[in-house]
Specification:
This protein has helices at residues 2-10, 32-48, 62-67, 77-85, 139-150, 167-175, 189-197, 210-219, 258-269, 272-278, 301-309, and strands at 21-26, 51-56, 72-76, 99-115, 130-134, 160-164, 182-185, 201-203, 224-228, 241-253. The chain has 314 residues and is α/β, with parallel strands linked by helices.
């Protein structure tokens, strides 16, 4: 992770003074999207010759993106759809018609982690346990956790709610023994830290059935269940395990120039080995899936131009 920690500083000097500058806004340092954003920013410097800087902050960063305070935003597919349409956690805030789609990246493979020696064996066993809640700065995390509880027929009414502002703070609470379970995307720096801090973590498997999938997709449109096999860089999985997943996507405001977005899509499409070297979860990146449609969010013309050139869209 030293590459990621040093990158925001080093990237400022990686391009010439005449290079175009862009920013990628992500969730807090240590989160999955922040680590992925740093890897993508490095690719933009190396391949697109853009001066790329990562802006980590506590909330989703959509408002900053559509207002022009940031250029690109790394998020999950359902949250981008909710923001664009003014639904979900953004109910009552109006639609944001200037949000545009750049491309699908890698799946967020998300999981509920408990201590390795915990007596919690299934999602259903979380009934009555201490679970992070609230997430005032990052409400989408609370939605995902409740969706996970819902796969076992539970809700936040069935657990002891422990208020927290965002996903990184809830990891701190887990390591401080204030909660019994920690939510995070596989491969995140916070999981590695928690694994070392509490003497090992273990992932809780989700049940895979048509009924469970229906409940899951009602809360998280576009989500799916996949099987994750054990791997050296994945903590908490010792056998093939079924988890919830949804796509990481990059979005941008409509007003950002076509040339910049074109260069960005092209650089990411051509950089899988470099992205994976910086952030291993990019091993799951399939460049040919980048043009996969995003519900209710139009493709940016700059990205569409590149995808047409390489035959991903007509």
């Amino acid at each position: 992770m030293k590459k990621l920690a040093a990158f925001a500083f080093a990237s400022l000097f990686a391009a010439t003074a005449a290079a175009q500058s862009v920013s990628i806004i992500t969730t807090p340092v240590g989160s999955f999207s922040n680590s992925a954003g740093a890897a993508m920013a490095k690719a933009l410097v190396d391949k697109a010759k853009l001066r790329a800087v990562v802006q980590a902050q506590a909330s989703t960063g959509f408002e900053e993106t559509v207002s022009g305070q940031a250029d690109f935003n790394v998020s999950n597919s359902f949250d981008a759809t909710f923001f664009a349409t003014g639904t979900g956690e953004y109910e009552g805030r109006g639609a944001h018609k200037n949000l545009r789609y750049v491309g699908a990246l890698i799946p967020y493979r998300v999981a509920m982690h408990v201590r390795a020696d915990s007596d919690i064996k299934r999602i259903a066993d979380l009934k009555g346990k201490r679970v992070s809640s609230g997430f005032q700065s990052q409400k989408t995390i609370g939605r995902i956790i409740e969706a996970y509880l819902g796969t076992a027929g539970l809700s936040y009414d069935d657990v002891q709610k422990v208020p927290t502002p965002n996903v990184v703070r809830q990891a701190d609470d887990f390591m401080s023994n204030k909660t019994d379970v920690m939510f995070f995307a596989l491969g995140s720096a916070a999981i590695k830290q928690a694994n070392a801090s509490v003497g090992g973590v273990r992932v809780l498997e989700v049940e895979d059935s048509p009924e469970v999938l229906t409940r899951l997709q009602k809360a998280l449109p576009g989500a799916y269940i996949l099987t994750v096999n054990p791997a050296p860089n994945i903590e908490g999985i010792s056998k093939p395990t079924k988890l919830v997943a949804f796509d990481m996507v990059m979005v941008v405001r409509a007003e950002l120039g076509d040339d910049i977005v074109y260069k960005t899509a092209k650089a990411l499409y051509e950089s899988k080995p470099e992205l994976q070297a910086t952030f291993p979860p990019f091993g799951l990146f399939n460049p040919k899936n980048m043009a996969k449609p995003l519900q209710s969010v139009p493709m940016h013309p700059g990205a569409a131009k590149f995808y047409k050139e390489v035959g991903l869209i007509k």
